[in-house]
Amino acid sequence: MASAAAAAAVVAVCAVVLVLSSPAAATYCTDYCTSQCTSTCNNQVDTNCGGIKPSVMQQCMRSCPGTYYMCYTSCSNAADNSYNSCKSYVFQHCYDPCNSGCNSNCTNP
């Protein structure tokens, strides 16, 4: 009888600990995965998009028929737009799968 009561008490304590720790685990995992995936995906952006601005700028300046100032302004905008498009595409396609995978495998340390 005493062992049954002790077992019930252990189960009750475990249930309380589990309920209390779940939000902490969720918060930990959300913060951890956000941090890890942001860092990973920013590295992917650097790797995949880092050379776009100088490349677009150089090609644009070579082919621009206007004045230097007009071309520089126009080409700078084109380079920025190309980089931002690449950054958005690469980050989005990296972040969502990274975050899903991280959260599904994350446990509170």
Note down, in words, how this protein is organized.
- By secondary structure, the chain is mainly α.
- The protein has 3 helices and no strands.
- It has helices spanning 2-49, 52-63, 68-105.
- It is rod-shaped and about 60 Å long.
Mind sketching the topology for me?
Elements: H1 2-49, H2 52-63, H3 68-105
Helix pairs in contact: 1-3, 2-3
Short description:
The chain contains three helices and no strands. It has helices at 2-49, 52-63, 68-105.
How would you characterize the largest beta sheet? Answer: none
What portion of residues is helical?
Answer: over 70%
Query: What is the number of E strands?
Result: 0
Structural class: mainly alpha
Which range does the strand content fall in?
A: under 5%
Poorly predicted parts: 1-23
How big is the Rg? 26 Å
Q: Give the number of helices.
A: 3
Order of helices and strands: HHH
Cα-to-Cα separation, first versus last residue: 36 Å
Q: Compute the average pLDDT.
A: 80
Principal-axis shape: rod-shaped
